[in-house]
Structures are given as C-alpha cells and as structure tokens.
Amino acid sequence: MYRLLDKVNTPADIRNFSLEDLKELCAEIRDYMIGCCATNPGHLGSSLGAVELIVGLHYVYNTPDDNIVFDVGHQAYAHKILTGRKELFRKNRKKDGISGFTKRTESEYDVFGAGHSSTSISAALGLAKASEFRRDGKKTVALIGDGALSGGLAFEGLNNAGSSKTDILVIINDNNISIDKNIGAIHEHLLRLTTDPTYNKIKKHVWDKIGDGTIRKMMQKFVVNTKSNIVSASGGDLFEAMGFRYFGPIDGNDIGQVTDTLQRLKDMKGPRILHTITTKGKGYPPAEEDQTIWHAPGMFDPVTGKRIAPTHHGASRYQDVFGEVLLELARKDSRIVGVTPAMASGCGMNLLAKEIPERFFDVGIAEEHAVTFSAGLAAGGMKPFCNIYSSFSQRAYDQIIHDVALQKLGVVLCFDRSGLVGEDGATHHGNFDIAAYRSIPDTIIAVPKDETELKDMMYTASLTGTGPFIIRYPRGYGEGRAWRDEEFKVIRVGSSELLMNGSNVAVLCAGPLANRALEAAQKCRGEHSWNPYIYNIRYIKPIDTEMLDNVLEKCSSIITVEDGCLAGGLYGAVTEYAASKKKSIRISGIGIPDRFIGQGTQSELREECGLDKTHIYQVIIEEMKEVLKKDQKVLESKN
C-alpha cells in the first residue's frame, strides 16, 4: 500500500501535490518499480535514475496535450506508472502485456515510440514544428540520455533544431558525470539568473530597443562569449554554438530543483538545452554500485539485491562463445581487432577489452561509424570483427553496402540477437537481417547451428579476407556443446551439412532451428517410420547449389525453416533457385510471418510463429502425407 501512488491514475492527479508530496511519490515509485522488476525483469537502472525528471515533467507540463518524447524508453518506467499503467506494469515486457518501451498504440501519453536510441530530438522537432503549423500551443520536450546522445542521429537533430528557432526543450539526462561541488553554487546561480522571467523580459526589451545594428551585434557577441566562458566547464558552449540556449547542469535527482527549473524554462521560446545530472540506479544501493549489471539485472531479491541466475543446464550463451573465441583468435593473429557500438559486455567483447585493450574499440551508439571505421581498419590491413545487435545493424545498411561490400573489404560482421529476442519486442527482434543483406553482392551470410559452428565460422571468417562476412546468431544459450574442447576447423563457404538422410521431403534449416527440425524428424521416424532429409544450410549466401540440385532432383517437397522473416529470407532464396531451374516442386516455409511480433519469452514467441519442435513436426507430417497421396494417385493412374 502506498499513501500517494495508490491515488495516482493520471499525471493530473499529482499537479496539486506539495514539494514534500512529490519527494514521497518519487520514493514510492522507486519502491514499486524495484518490487515489480525483481520478479519480472526489465531495464531497471536507467528508470530508477530518471524518476524525478519524469515526475517533474508530468507535474509541470500539461500531458498528454503537451508532448514528452523519450529516447530508447529504458528510462520511461516511471512515465508508464504515472500514466494509467500502474497495474499493467506488473506485466511489463510479458506476452500480451505492455511494452518495455514507449509505444504509440499503447497510450496517448506515448507520443512517439522508442526502441532504438538517438531518435528523440528529431521526433520532438517534428512534433514541435507540427504544433507550429496547427498553432495549438503545445509544448514539446525531448528527454535523451543513457548514452543516446553519442548517436549520429542525435547530432543531426540538434543541428537542425538549433537552426530552426522552433520552440523545443531538450533535456540531457547525464548519468555518467557527477556535479563538481566546488562550482555547483555558481551553476545554480547562473541557472536562476538566466531562467528568471523578469531577466528574460528585460533582455528582450533591451534587444528590441537597440535594434539590429552594429551595436546590438557587438553586445550580443560580448554576452555570448562571457556566458560561454562561465558554462564551458559543463560543455554548454557546444550547444550554444549549435543554436541552443544552454542551462545547467542541475541535479536531476532533486525534485525541487527539477520542478523549479522546468517551470522557468516552460514558457521560453526557441530551442533550449537543460543539462541534468542523475545517478543511474538512484535509490537502490546495489544498482548504484554496479550500474552496468543493474541496467537489466534479471530477477533478484529486492531486499538483499542478490541476483537470481537462470538455469541453463551447463550451456554457454552465444555472446560468451563470441567473446572467448574472439580473444583466442586475437591472441593468434595481431591483426584482429574488435569494434562494438556500446555493447561491449552485451556481446562479450569485454574480454578482449580487458586483455588486449589497444585492439578493442567501443565507438558509442554509432552503428554507421562502427561499420565504416571497421572498413577503414580493413583497408589498412587489419582484421576487424564488428559486433552489432541484428536489429541495430539496420541503421548501418548504407555503410555495409558502400563502405564494405562495394570495396570488398574484409570486415566480419557478427549479428548478435538475431531472430526473436524475447521481451524487448518488435523494436529489437532481429528478423530482417537475412532478407536485408542477402541481396548485396559479394556478401557471405553464415548461420551456425550451435556453439561449435559459431566458433568455426569465426575462425573461417578470420581467414577469408573479403567481406562483408556476416555471422548471425541468436540471443541466449546454445545447445550445450563442448565447444571449448574442439580444435578450430574451417567450414567451407557455401557448404551445407546433411544431418539426417531420408527420402521425398527435404527440410532445409538455418541456424539453431536445425536442431529442433532434427528432433522433429526423429520423432517422425519413430512414430511413422518416415525419414525426411534434414539439412543444416550453414550458409544462406552463397547457398549450397550442389545440395539444392540434389534435393530438386530427388524430392517432391521442400520445407525451409528459419528464425527470420519468410519474405526474402531462406524461403525466398530456395524458391528463387527452384524457379531459376524451372523446377515445379512444392516448397513450404516456416519462419517469422509478415507482421511485427510483440514481446514475450523466446519460447512463447517461437511457438506463436511456429518455430518450435511441435509445429515443425506437424508440417513435416503434413508434407509426408501429401507426398503419399501424390504417389498413390500416380500408382492408381498407372493401374
């Protein structure tokens, strides 16, 4: 039971709260958030740090009429709790529950969806400009933080917004730099002076009286230079140069300072920057002490902070396989380097960073730069392994084509989190990588079925020398193979692997789903004495045409199985090849359907999309029955 939070159903309910009430409300929101995330994991650290900012925004601004645009959405949990989704938050990120990010179809308070980073400023500028056209008086705020400001799109938005003179407030949620106490009072004094309504009214009056002549320009230059010198310690001169008025930094975890500052800035015109300093994980000691782990800690005991490790039966996570293998390859070859756009621990590259830091590059949330930087390394004779989450790679599509493929540069692109990632939902599923990159000339797309194949494909890629060499693999744990004990082997590019010999029906599988298809086929053999061919495709591009020719010659039916979109994926590759050979053959595809898939556990979503063993078994049975019917008709016609 919460004294204040239980009374809050919409932001309007908090606008008559006293300052002491707001402080208590922030504490209650944190407690509720920790309790929910302990049993239903989510992105906790960022949201704990942004509570006062979000409470302050909803207190000062007239939401949902005014617009608050979040970046990424990792920090938006307090926003969801305040905007009518308090009870629904208990099913945050669950199947058929609410999204872990802001989502336009979910609430009128979610004015713009945010799953990937660095979009808030551009989107907020668009909303603010639309408000200008409508003359509806809406205020627009972009809240950007948690590293998102390092993304190129954020700077594109800043550049355009600063020159547009549009009424927009950008709040930087800076949780990496602490306030310097020695100059804190000076910053607070400057903030109060420059946000004071009387000061700004007099300032406008003076400028109007002076006019647009030489004297005004000289005085403006003097004021700007003086102000920049004062605030340059906190980086304000950069934003002033881009056309923004810069304010701050302020303590973003002080609700009194936040609300007071927002009230002063609310009715100002033009582009403004408010720099706030917050603590990631604020209010929960374990999250404050280890901010990386507690960004998304999984399940934990809310009292002790002890994390509850999931059971995995001794299997390794694919990201750990990648990290260990990359380090081993780097030890053997001094030309191998690692590049990641701010996902070092998430992809496993932190191992390389620790042992060989000079050959590790975290370029920030900048996928485009990561790819072109890797291309430059390759052009200079290095062997870069660039690891990007599959859905994030979409932002670097142009660079993969122009800077890597067109120039035939040996960049190894490892797409972690390919396929259905689980609770992060539609913005993070890596469904489209096969279809997106299969059409690019001179591109290799490898799909390992287990940990050992990932290891060997990384080794093969390190020897190939041309690119892009894409290796895609899923989020989570592998098959439990003893991959560390295996010697490195080259897997010939364009070769497939026959997992089960059979007749009539061929099942062509991409990635770990080959294991589920093999299990389904073994059940089919045990229960019906039917043996389909099971092929581990291994390379979607170049595809094994010798194997396909053999299948087209011997089989009446083909089933493709892939953890990616059917349109343009393995299913597309096989049907295109069959058509090119003028073969009339029944081809069925099992994969992700032509729609966006929501959140849920990976197993729930695979069942929804028919990527589980049971569904694969049913499709094989149906295809076998169709083949038997066809054979029966042929036999009857002969008789």
TrEMBL record:
Cofactor binding note of this UniProt entry: Binds 1 thiamine pyrophosphate per subunit. Binds 1 Mg(2+) ion per subunit.
A GO molecular function held by the record: thiamine pyrophosphate binding
Name of this protein: 1-deoxy-D-xylulose-5-phosphate synthase
Lineage of source species: Bacteria, Pseudomonadati, Bacteroidota, Bacteroidia, Bacteroidales
SMART domains named among the record's database cross-references: Transket_pyr
Lipid biosynthesis recorded as keyword: no
Named cofactor requirement(s): thiamine diphosphate; Mg(2+)
EC number: 2.2.1.7
Domain Transketolase-like pyrimidine-binding: from-to ranges: 316-481
CDD domains: TPP_DXS, TPP_PYR_DXS_TK_like
UniProt binding sites for thiamine diphosphate: H74, G115, H116, S117, G147, A148, N175, Y284, E367
